[in-house]
Fold this protein.
Amino acid sequence: MEWYLPLIWAALIGAAVAMYVILDGFDLGIGILFPLAKREAERDQMMNSVAPFWDGNETWLVLGGGGLLAAFPLAYAVIMPAVYLPIILMLLALIFRGVAFEFRWVARSSKVWWNIAFAGGSLVAAFSQGLVLGGLLQGIEVQDRQYAGGPFDWLTPFSILCGVGVVAGYGLLGATWLVLRTEGVVADRSREQAKWLLLAVLVAMGIVSLWTPLLIERIAERWFTLPNFFYLAPVPIVTALLAFMVWKWLSDKREHAPFVGAIGLFLLGYLGLVISNFPYLVPPSLTVWQTAAAPSSQIFMLIGTIFLLPIILGYTVFVYWLFWGKIREGEGYH
């Protein structure tokens, strides 16, 4: 087997997941913050800030999931039954949320119910993604290259903590996005909400960072043995410094910097997870090489991806460039 092909595909899928978390993260975050708006005009302003982007953001979820199935079929076959219930819950929530997004604009007497559906779908989707993350991090029981656990092995205090952390993180992305994209009451309120959400994210990241090495010996060895400790120490140090800067930027009423900083915090947290678990794609037993498809299949799919990925990236950049700018109350795309 060409040893580099699984690494290329792991990097591609990892990048797709990171793009989804960032782009759909602020999208879901707006839904999480939706109930805190005081008036319908404010909720309209919040939804209009993502109206041109929200469905395109979910393209990256399809790319990540489809890439996992195609490039790492064994990992897909093990992971899916392990976290089947939260995955189904997430997909149903995303579908319900998408329907609510469209129907809310034409509803009159039932608008309040579509508001609840949009906010509830966003909250459930974010929390479900955290449950999946927690279920993967704590490890999946595998015997004879098959899932050997029960249907609720993913449901633990650790996975619930991860779910709460993802909700807070998406809320932070959503709040900083609103600071960037809106004006008036919505932007001012979001700036204050972002500070509280930043604290919640830091607490969740801190607990997970301490819990995982206590729970899993190989992660403790990765981070706290010498010389790894010195090599990896910049990751938490930079994270703490960036969090301080995000707080300062919010206090200074900066517009672009808090959102960029929030993205940086997510990427640093993502890097920490990669460091803790690589090369395992199904922790703690199956690596990227053990779960990879045949080299000929990976090469065939890679050829198609070389042409497809620039199109997706180009479309994403074009849409964000085309619809960039502040959304004021009463303005929108519907």
User: Anything to note?
Assistant: The mean pLDDT is 90. The radius of gyration is 20 Å.
